[in-house]
Design a protein that fits this description.
alpha/beta, five-stranded parallel sheet, 8 helices, 5 strands, elongated
């Protein structure tokens, strides 16, 4: 048995997401722009990219940067909030920075769209900084509230591009280091050649490997990778 039900999902605390820990690859210009948000009151950025492109990392890095400068920052993960949590948007205009992650999750939800529209207006009137992320470009979100789409189009629009293989390897190394494990070179190469190459899938597999290695007191090797991938495939079957 690869995974024990008694082992918690998160075995070690994640380290803070910082700009220096983000593997930019082809996205260096995007990272430079985001680093400058703290110096630009009233700035508004719409950031989009596929799953695993690092949107959440960058939004949290921006919040961390703001707090290091004694500013007040708030990160809002829409995919984790129930519909009746719209009250959490009240008073955000008093902060120096507000980061809203995963806008695509609420696209078409009348209650959330209306609440976000008024929240964004209050932040703009207060000259606050606002960064919103989505998996899709604004034009593909199919927002039901035209005024919300209009507000979101006023600021900068930045796209995160997919990473090259060498950058994916660097991300896996950083993530494995944060989890307190070491990925041998042959394991990294195996994952890139024989596995789903999306960054989200690679990161998830690294975390699965950590759990399997600790649960079974085994070294991380290619045979263990095969077992972990097989177990994950079986778990996904209906």
């Amino acid at each position: 048995m690869l995974f024990s039900r008694q082992i918690p999902l998160q075995l070690t605390p994640r380290r803070d997401c910082r700009f220096d820990d983000y593997v930019a690859g082809p996205n260096e210009a995007v990272v430079r722009t985001l680093r400058q948000v703290a110096d630009q009151p009233g700035s508004h950025v719409f950031l989009f990219g596929g799953p695993g492109s690092g949107k959440t990392h960058l939004l949290n890095a921006l919040c961390h940067q703001t707090r290091e400068r004694q500013g007040r920052a708030f990160y809002l993960a829409l995919k984790r909030l129930p519909k009746d949590a719209v009250a959490s948007l009240q008073g955000l205009q008093e902060l120096d920075l507000v980061c809203v992650d995963d806008l695509h999750v609420i696209a078409g939800d009348e209650v959330w769209e209306e609440a976000l529209f008024h929240c964004f207006n209050r932040i703009r009137e207060a000259d606050g900084r606002l960064v919103i992320s989505s998996r899709e470009h604004l034009s593909a979100l199919n927002l039901g509230l035209p005024d919300l789409a209009s507000r979101l189009s006023w600021g900068s629009c930045l796209q995160l591009m997919p990473l090259e293989d060498q950058d994916k390897l660097a991300v896996m190394e950083l993530h494995s280091d944060a989890l307190g494990i070491s990925l041998p070179v042959e394991v990294q190469q195996y994952l890139l050649k024989r596995h789903d190459r999306s960054m989200a899938a690679l990161i998830q597999t690294v975390e699965n490997l950590q759990r399997a290695a600790l649960t079974n007191k085994r070294r991380i090797t290619v045979p263990l990778v095969r077992e972990v991938l097989k177990a994950a495939s079986v778990a996904e079957q209906p």
